Amino acid sequence: MKSYKELYSLVEQKIQQLNFDKHPKELFEPISYMLSLGGKRLRPVLVLMAADLFGEDIENAVSAALAVEVFHNFTLVHDDIMDRSDIRRGKPTVHKKWDQTVAILAGDLMMIKATDILCETKTSDLKNLISIFNKAAAEVCEGQQIDMNYEKRNDVSVGEYLEMITLKTAVLLGCSLNLGAAIAKANASDMKNIYEFGKNIGVAFQIQDDILDSFGEGEKVGKKIGGDIATNKKTLLLIRAFELADASTKNDLQKLIEEDAKNVDEKINAVLKIYEKVNVRKEAELLKEKYLATAFSHLDKISVDDSRKEILRNTANELMQRMS
Amino acid sequence: MKSYKELYSLVEQKIQQLNFDKHPKELFEPISYMLSLGGKRLRPVLVLMAADLFGEDIENAVSAALAVEVFHNFTLVHDDIMDRSDIRRGKPTVHKKWDQTVAILAGDLMMIKATDILCETKTSDLKNLISIFNKAAAEVCEGQQIDMNYEKRNDVSVGEYLEMITLKTAVLLGCSLNLGAAIAKANASDMKNIYEFGKNIGVAFQIQDDILDSFGEGEKVGKKIGGDIATNKKTLLLIRAFELADASTKNDLQKLIEEDAKNVDEKINAVLKIYEKVNVRKEAELLKEKYLATAFSHLDKISVDDSRKEILRNTANELMQRMS
Question: Per the CB < 8 Å rule, is A102 touching B144?
Fold first, then answer.
């Protein structure tokens, strides 16, 4: 079994070999730029890990791995427009560095290229691969729209929140593993279990992300603490804090969110105090552990030797720890 | 051979049967809305005509036809954002009726759904169909970006203009015919010729569009005369007028374009006078006829009985006349 590091290196090398050097440059430069910004390359690595798990030559899964990474970056380019984000991985976002038109079109083209790259896979069932890919792709769009809807609502429930992050973030991890497994011709039961492993890990990651934004150590996380609080993002912590708080605390929290904060740091500190008071971190940690446990129970059920599964188990654990 | 009217009715009926009634409604309602706005349904009809031409049961080409129509409408949703257009077919555009986020995401989802629908085609060579489809899809994005680039330039040549409209408009007509032909297992030479027929007809249509915007009868065309002039659009007429004009006339034209017009109707009339003076309409008509002739020469070369080609010839001629 190849290590994360080995698979990551392979993905990086193959991304650099992608040839987007075409006319007009306004469209292809942003694509190369976006793909060069790096990141964990988690999704393509998962495609390769799943192929490896079921005994397939990982070279046969490289196209699917790249397709998922190009698709993921397409969603980031369009999300950054919608979220009005100026910075991505420490560099200007595409719509900032170029303009909105370029960002819309470069994103569109990345989506098209992702399917093209996926079609390069040597497989007897291309229709199935595209179906797995497109189902997740559609769900990611749906999740992003639901997230946008929540910006305007104050009554989002934990259940609704979990549905949103499942669609927006988690299904693509399940899809990545499923693509690798499908290329390796895994059976239906293994396909289902590895998908559920990925999806549940994805939900746990997102909950972890929410926790770290409020309780992480800024430098380790790589971004300022309290960003979600500053922008009134409907995170698990905020939603759960409203549910757990007594009437008076709820009132205080509502005011903090509704009022235009004169001092953002004061606002963050005040909200964090409420989070601590209602012990919302503990709640979130428990929910995260629940999803992790569900993920591992699905991994256990997969019909390959346990020793081959270690890499996926370790990857999940290391990623959760690296971020904490 | 089925008539345009029959194929149009079939397309309309199948579009109404498309089921986008899903959650969240903010994403699926705009898709249904956009597809209900009507239009000539030229592209899907061309898919079916090509299948019919080569003796295929048109039912087998319906999915490809719908895929092209959904893709075309995706490009319209995103183009309307970039062009800041508020009205499409007499109704508010998606980003006006909802908002920009909805328009970006609904467009993204339409692109994904287009591929999904294409994959429903019963075929032994899905990879080929997707390749034909994605090549045109990528070129349409490139054409739109080049068009956006031209907005900022004053030295666009006729050759560059023709490249742009070929990519932005014409290749999708060639692609539509090619999909129908591929489903009917047409040979390589016929595939090439029917593609060139569609592409050249597409260029002729766009030139016709440019001519009508300046010289059409407003009510027949369905939009106000001079819209392109009012917005300084780099049409064939404007580009060619600059090339044909003497130094003094060129100067007048430049001023009309650079200055903020106090009275738009006066500006339109002044530019139209220059167009008449340099006889640019005649030039454009000749170029249009050249592309039409090239298109028909490719149609002639297709290895099926001439009588079967009449429907494509008539469709091209009728569309050119209906718009004049």
Answer: no
